[in-house]
């Protein structure tokens, strides 16, 4: 692990029961980066994220947080440094946005420190940062998918961790809400100086938002680095098995993956008949 | 996803906070009102319960006797007969409701209750074994406690290996309940006729003839487990959000879950040992408390208070509903609780929640 990395894994073997997903995997998350992990389905990217968030214990190897084995640290101590937005969470029936976001304060509270003025300020600020302040007293069940995801992000922000892991934060959202959530992540990264690690499916989004890209296949890291250097036609073909061309995103100048057309569809528009 | 409602969403009353230095405690006005209301109702119903029966006493007589100014006969009737029954009712109701509230949060399913998970049936099996073997009342209570605990251990052994997930626990519980119901039926056919009649009465759940011998051990259990349950309540409200989220927030999920499952099983088994398997209180009381307080989450104190009052009211109704004929309290909780559950499912179905 390099010196400027607070979170990473060394020699990780990751498995569910007996099914091994990754063997001898080592990664380092650059400090203050917006790291995005990409790869085809079942390549182990979410598993890696779960291991980094200590919701999955590696069968071999060590996850290091600030140079120490994450499983040797106290649960609550880790929770003040490292936050996670899992793929699926459950909103208890009838809970309001403010109540849900407030539960993110758990690692900072105690039996006799149930609601400090700081808790109050952080929850208000987290809701403002994600644009759900006006929804504070609405039940979460009644919100749209995009609003709900922003509420969960607000809860993770209320945890006040310098590192935040997001497991496919844009899944189930329409394209406008996907961009909205990713713009929010980029803002958190740039303005608040948090280190973000996200698992994303969309290569275009990954290339556009990531400052550091990790491409995985079959439980191995195939390539990593600046997306402008990492995302090449050869790499996309190797990782996803998808023949493609890379063009420049006219908005951001980042690489844009354009899949090759099927044979027979290469000519101009088909005349309507 | 549910349809958007035409009316504005009801806003929840914000929580109140008391801060002294760095210490702070948070509560909701509505929860406090529900708790105080339930306590007041319990006092009124308690005085009525003690005053009624073959030797009627006016509320003033009851209060006079309770404060130590009664005649010898009154002292005996209140202190040895009616007060222990009242205390048993309150303790059984509170224990069942607490157990149900914890289990519902733990398995994230409104059906998570000791009745559905088979703990109550396990207690019944223990009791029936004693009946068939011809044991006494004390042995019966002990066996009921052990039966409930054994079922809890079985649930943990079967469903717990993979992390005690909500649905898995409910399904394993339903299976366990089915098996134990069969075993209980078989045991009943093996019992002599007189004992079988006594067993059936016990199986309905009854407070008839319950004294300090039943009340005191259950009170002890409550005194032991309430701090455990209350101390982990905040962690429980985070576990409700999902295992991954709870872990990320710093809750040692499997440890807390095992601790709370153990406490919930003990409470339910203890209640069954004292009064038999009184149905539906564990399922209904937490629901009712949540609707009354309008606070999401485990709502432990409100649930316990609601459960205690519910069982007391049911026992009062069981004694007075039909003139000159006492019903076992389990008949009343079964009828009322079952009807409430059906109504709840119908109402929730309309709101497209279930």
From TrEMBL, chain B:
<keyword id="KW-1003">Cell membrane</keyword>
<feature type="transmembrane region" description="Helical">
    <location>
        <begin position="169"/>
        <end position="188"/>
    </location>
</feature>
<feature type="transmembrane region" description="Helical">
    <location>
        <begin position="259"/>
        <end position="285"/>
    </location>
</feature>
<feature type="transmembrane region" description="Helical">
    <location>
        <begin position="86"/>
        <end position="107"/>
    </location>
</feature>
<keyword id="KW-0813">Transport</keyword>
<protein>
    <submittedName>
        <fullName>Iron chelate uptake ABC transporter family permease subunit</fullName>
    </submittedName>
</protein>
<keyword id="KW-0472">Membrane</keyword>
<dbReference type="Pfam" id="PF01032">
    <property type="entry name" value="FecCD"/>
</dbReference>
<feature type="transmembrane region" description="Helical">
    <location>
        <begin position="326"/>
        <end position="346"/>
    </location>
</feature>
<feature type="transmembrane region" description="Helical">
    <location>
        <begin position="32"/>
        <end position="51"/>
    </location>
</feature>
<feature type="transmembrane region" description="Helical">
    <location>
        <begin position="297"/>
        <end position="314"/>
    </location>
</feature>
<keyword id="KW-0812">Transmembrane</keyword>
<dbReference type="InterPro" id="IPR000522">
    <property type="entry name" value="ABC_transptr_permease_BtuC"/>
</dbReference>
<feature type="transmembrane region" description="Helical">
    <location>
        <begin position="218"/>
        <end position="239"/>
    </location>
</feature>
<dbReference type="InterPro" id="IPR037294">
    <property type="entry name" value="ABC_BtuC-like"/>
</dbReference>
<comment type="similarity">
    <text>Belongs to the binding-protein-dependent transport system permease family. FecCD subfamily.</text>
</comment>
<keyword id="KW-1133">Transmembrane helix</keyword>
<feature type="transmembrane region" description="Helical">
    <location>
        <begin position="128"/>
        <end position="157"/>
    </location>
</feature>
């Amino acid at each position: 692990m390099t010196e400027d990395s607070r979170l990473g894994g060394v020699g990780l073997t990751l498995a569910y029961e007996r099914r091994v997903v990754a063997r001898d995997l080592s990664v380092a998350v650059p400090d203050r980066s917006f790291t995005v992990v990409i790869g085809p389905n079942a390549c182990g990217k979410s598993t890696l994220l779960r291991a980094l968030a200590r919701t999955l214990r590696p069968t071999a190897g060590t996850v290091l947080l600030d140079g120490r084995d994450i499983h040797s640290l106290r649960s609550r101590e880790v929770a003040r440094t490292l936050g996670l937005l899992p793929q699926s969470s459950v909103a208890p029936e009838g809970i309001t946005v403010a109540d849900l976001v407030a539960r993110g304060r758990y690692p900072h509270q105690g039996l006799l420190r149930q609601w400090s003025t700081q808790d109050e300020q952080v929850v208000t600020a987290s809701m403002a940062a994600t644009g759900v302040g006006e929804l504070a007293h609405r039940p979460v069940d009644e919100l749209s998918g995009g609003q709900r995801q922003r509420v969960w992000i607000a809860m993770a922000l209320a945890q006040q961790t310098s590192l935040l892991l997001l497991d496919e934060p844009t899944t189930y959202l329409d394209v406008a809400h996907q961009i909205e959530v990713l713009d929010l992540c980029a803002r958190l990264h740039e303005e608040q100086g948090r280190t973000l690690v996200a698992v994303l499916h969309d290569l275009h989004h990954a290339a556009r938002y990531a400052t550091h890209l990790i491409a995985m296949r079959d439980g191995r890291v195939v390539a990593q680095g600046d997306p402008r250097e990492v995302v090449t036609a050869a790499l996309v073909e190797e990782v996803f098995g998808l023949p493609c061309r890379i063009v420049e995103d006219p908005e951001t100048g980042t690489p844009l993956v354009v899949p090759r057309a099927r044979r027979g569809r290469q000519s101009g528009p088909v005349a309507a008949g | 996803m549910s349809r958007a409602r035409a009316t504005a969403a009801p806003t929840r009353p914000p929580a109140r906070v008391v801060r002294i230095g760095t210490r702070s405690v948070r509560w909701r006005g509505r929860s406090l009102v529900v708790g105080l209301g339930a306590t007041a109702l319990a006092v009124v119903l308690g005085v009525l319960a003690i005053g009624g029966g073959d030797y009627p006493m006016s509320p003033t007589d009851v209060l006079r006797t309770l404060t130590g100014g009664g005649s010898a006969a009154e002292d005996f009737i209140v202190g040895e007969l009616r007060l222990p029954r009242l205390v048993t009712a309150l303790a059984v109701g509170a224990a069942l409701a607490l157990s149900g509230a914890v289990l519902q949060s733990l398995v994230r399913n409104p059906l998570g209750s000791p009745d559905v998970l088979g703990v109550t049936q396990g207690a019944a099996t223990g009791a029936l074994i004693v009946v068939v073997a011809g044991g006494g009342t004390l042995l019966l209570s002990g066996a009921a406690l052990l039966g409930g605990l054994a079922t809890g251990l079985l649930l943990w052994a079967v469903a717990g290996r993979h992390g005690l997930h909500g649905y898995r626990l409910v399904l394993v519980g339903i299976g366990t309940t089915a098996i134990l119901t069969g075993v209980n039926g078989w045991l009943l056919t093996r019992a002599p006729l007189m004992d079988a009649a006594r067993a059936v009465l016990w199986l309905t759940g009854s407070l008839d003839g319950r004294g300090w011998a039943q009340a005191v051990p259950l009170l002890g259990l409550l005194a032991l487990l309430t701090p455990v349950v209350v101390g982990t309540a905040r962690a429980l409200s985070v576990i409700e959000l999902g295992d991954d989220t709870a872990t990320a927030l710093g809750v040692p999920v499997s440890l807390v879950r095992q601790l709370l499952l153990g406490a919930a099983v003990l409470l339910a088994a203890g209640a069954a040992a004292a009064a038999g398997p009184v149905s539906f209180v564990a399922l209904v009381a937490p629901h009712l408390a949540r609707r009354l307080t309008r606070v999401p989450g485990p709502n432990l104190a409100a649930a316990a208070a609601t459960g205690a009052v519910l069982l007391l009211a049911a026992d009062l109704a069981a004694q007075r509903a039909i003139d000159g004929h006492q019903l076992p309290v389990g008949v009343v909780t079964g009828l009322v609780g079952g009807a409430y559950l059906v109504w709840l499912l119908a109402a929730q179905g309309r709101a497209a929640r279930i």
